Fold:
Amino acid sequence: MKSKTVEVEGYTTLPVQLPTLPLFPTLATHYLYIRPHEPRIPDPDSTRSLFIVNVPIDTTEAHIRHLFGTQLAAGRVERVQFEDVQTKKRAVATTETNLTQSKKKRKRETADDFQHHLDNITLPSTWDRKLQKSGAHAVVIFADKPSMESSLKAATKAAKRGTTIVWGDSLPSDRIPALGLNRYVAHERLQYPDRGTLLRTVNEFMTTFTAVSEARKREDHKRLAVPDEDGFVTVSHGPKLNSAAREDEMREIVERQKKKAAGLEDFYRFQSREKRKERQNQLLRNFDEDKKKLAEIKARKGKIRPE
Structure:
């Protein structure tokens, strides 16, 4: 049966049959929308790439390679870049690009640039297979431009002739991780990511975090050195004190004030008179207490006899 609609808004429509499942034993038709990749900012690979929209949620790189290399028998796929999932080659290429750009723009990077990079650092995934979101797209990079063009022509012919293409048909099971319960069982085994990968991720995060802090400090110092509207410059020096250091500093200030005030107690004449009177009264009180004690001792004399 021939397809009525082959091209939609510049996309070649390729219908594929999704395989049956135990809980859904009916074939379902899924449509792939394919066109040459034309990004806003062209790159060296865009001339030999195809842009595919609405890939199935279980799509892997093996599915794409099998579709164009075996089922359509058109061209050789070099790599696939998914919307959310990075392949190993893409991750390496992205890392090398970031390192090159960072070396070129190291002096011009701001704290916001480091913060953006910090926000994009995530822990390595423990899933052995990622699922695509509904309606996701992918970029398929072929070995050369003729392979891309022949693959697009083969997809167009298959759509016009109504060729039945079963998604992932005869694809070896050892080339793709399992789905369903087996996927969750594998996730239980791989709960902890590879130690080397985890260490690299944590080191990258801490290095970027330190770079953000240092960049913020540099920007704050530059901002303070700029005169305000009235022409004044805010002068700031020395580290900021935390609560413990501030308490120690206040305690030292209080002690110094006490030492300074110690020599000023008898500065005025009335203060000296008051102190002399107080000492005299204290001596009189002590004398009266001693007289009472002496009288009590004399009263008890001779009344207590040893046995």
